[in-house]
Design goal:
2 domains; binds adenosine-5'-triphosphate; binds magnesium ion; alpha+beta
């Protein structure tokens, strides 16, 4: 029978990008990048967000692609409300991918490739969607359109990537794996259509502070402690770790924070129960409890 440690390692590796997924992701984002470059004057485009930082969970979706506008496009768009550049990007993407596949979001345009996710959260190694993010340079930072506030918002993906890298290193290279697990829990369909924590980037931001004291060597304990710390601090204000954009915790109102709190407390309790089952020697039951908590990518064997 598989041990708990082996199960967690398998779970962790299932949440990592494999070669086939990378190949498909690369094909998809390259196509979108090449297309956008034929429609707008782009100074530079690159992958950002959790995909670029290796904190993206499964099923693989919403790969962020940053498009830094050239000086001329910046002059055209930056003085206008954020909705304008988003509308124009939306229109161009609809021309290629069709109305049904393209969706305007707060700060990006989502392009969906119509991939179906099976009951085990597998997608036959295909990427579900990408997020196209128009941006302008602002010194060493960037500004992106934010339709939720009606203003352009400062951001800096390099700073976020640096913080994640440092945290990972300080946690014996287990930090990103744990972040992916917590984000996978957040995606678990048992929570219904609304994820407990929104945006899921908030989990990563909180983990910068909530995973501390160094890796203690056991996934089950680390996960339990993480859920418990996330619950304790989910109602706090969480600023952009780069000190530039709007608070990451602004994605939830008080009612939604209360709901997230309750669900995190429940998760921490479920984790304690699973640990207890293993301690009593009920390994099969413990594995089932972890799978119930996380979802189908947690292995039973
Ligand atoms: N409020 C904010 N202020 C500044 N930068 C932000 C803010 N929110 C998000 N970002 C940046 O934009 C990136 C993309 O945002 P997004 O919501 O897609 O998060 P993500 O980290 O990619 O997580 P997910 O796995 O859910 O896609 C973030 O990774 C972060 O670098
Ligand atoms: Mg993202």
């Amino acid at each position: 029978m598989i041990s708990l440690d082996e199960a967690f390692r398998k779970f962790k590796s299932r949440l990592e990008l494999n070669e086939r997924e990378q190949t498909n992701a690369s094909k998809r984002h390259t196509e979108v990048r090449e297309y956008i470059r034929t429609k707008f004057a782009i100074q530079r485009d690159f992958l950002t967000g959790s995909y670029a930082r290796h904190t993206k969970t499964k099923p693989l979706k919403d790969i962020d692609i940053f498009f830094v506008l050239s000086a001329s496009e910046t002059e055209k768009y930056h003085s206008q409300p954020p909705s304008k550049v988003l509308e124009d990007f939306h229109k161009v993407l609809v021309d290629k991918y069709g109305e049904a596949a393209v969706r305007k979001q707060g700060r990006s345009i989502n392009v969906d490739f119509g991939v179906v996710v099976d009951a085990d959260d597998n997608t036959d190694y295909r990427v579900l969607s990408v997020d196209v993010v128009p941006a302008v340079s602002a010194g060493s930072d960037y500004e992106i359109p934010n339709n939720d506030t009606g203003k352009w918002m400062k951001t800096n993906p390099e700073i976020h990537a640096g913080k994640a890298r440092d945290a990972h290193q300080a946690f014996s290279s287990e930090w990103k794996g744990l972040v992916r697990m917590a984000k996978y829990w957040n995606n678990n369909p048992k929570h219904g259509a609304d994820k407990p924590v929104k945006p899921s980037f908030l989990i990563e931001v909180m983990a910068l502070e909530c995973l501390h004291g160094g890796w203690q060597g056991r996934f089950d304990y680390e996960v339990q402690t993480l859920f418990s710390s996330l619950a304790d601090r989910i109602k706090d204000e969480w600023k952009d770790p780069a000190g530039l954009g709007s608070p990451i915790s602004d994605g939830m109102d008080d009612a939604r924070k209360e709901r997230a709190y309750q669900m995190l407390v429940a998760a921490s309790r479920e984790a304690s129960n699973a640990i207890h089952l293993a301690r009593k020697g009920q390994n099969t039951e413990a594995l089932k409890a972890w799978r119930q908590l996380f979802g189908p990518k947690f292995p039973l064997s």
